[in-house]
Amino acid sequence: MSYALLIAAGMFAVVAGANDGSxxxxxxxxxxxxxxxxxxxxxxxxxxxxxxxxxxTGVATTLAHGLVPFSxxxxxxxxxxxxxxAMMVVFALVRAGLPxxxxxxxxxxxxxxxxxAGLPLRGGELAMILxxxxxxxxxxxxxxxxxxxxxxxxxxxxxAEGTLLRWHRGAFVLQCLAYSANGGQKMLALFAVAAxxxxxGVVRDPWYxxxxxxxxxxxxxxxxxxxxxxxxxxxxxxxxxxxxxxxETCSFAVVMGAGLAGIPLTMSQSVAGALVxxxxxxxxxxxxWREVTRMAGAWGVTLPASVAVAAIAGxxxxxx
Length: 320
Prior knowledge:
This protein is mostly helical. It has one domain. The protein has 13 helices and no strands. It is globular. The relative contact order is 0.22.
């Protein structure tokens, strides 16, 4: 067991809670009036039961074994390089005011660490991840454009608020499950390598990981609560309940589909795309295009920056 990697993986889980938690929770909290602790509780339960009991660990296996064939006694060292590099890139972009994807940063950092270590990179796997990542916000936007007229009709009825609220609550649960089947498994991949449960080409999710990871993630959400509050008032759309329900439904479909195929995908890209589609269904002016541009720019910088930082660090670790 690598204690250095275990500590870094714990820090990564906390960072994931602060970064990813705000993306998932912020879209629905404001318009629905749902209590944050109730939403957080649902989120954490989904993180426990998703990979452990329902969906398996396909995405975690892709991250641990599918991109770079790490093996031997140096595996922990280079996975540690990737973990630290991913967090460094995300911290730098957040400090620059650019919201980014921790999943995308980790994918790039794993690829970069493998290159620095002199290991072969499985280009087909990386290309598929990039292709799905590029398509996800577009597919989510298209789904939201198709679904938004129904949400708009439901919002005009006498019982509109109750109907939309039930839709939102159900879609939020599904969205949390989708995160557990996909983006949430990046934490599991790192812990599994550190704890030795990623051997044989398959990542296992023993009970002690299934229970401890959500606790660390929840700590990160609580530490990033100010970020959630900020996003409630400064997103790509002035979100109403119908927008939240549509965005959660569409992001669930896209992220869950990728997760079942074992393809890592960030939830924030799908949520952002769905919100853009929901806004466009009403008026082009409803979308805050400056925020959309900032997010797209951050995503575009994240992968090459992570590859470069991790490759340099991997070369240094290899020479040490």
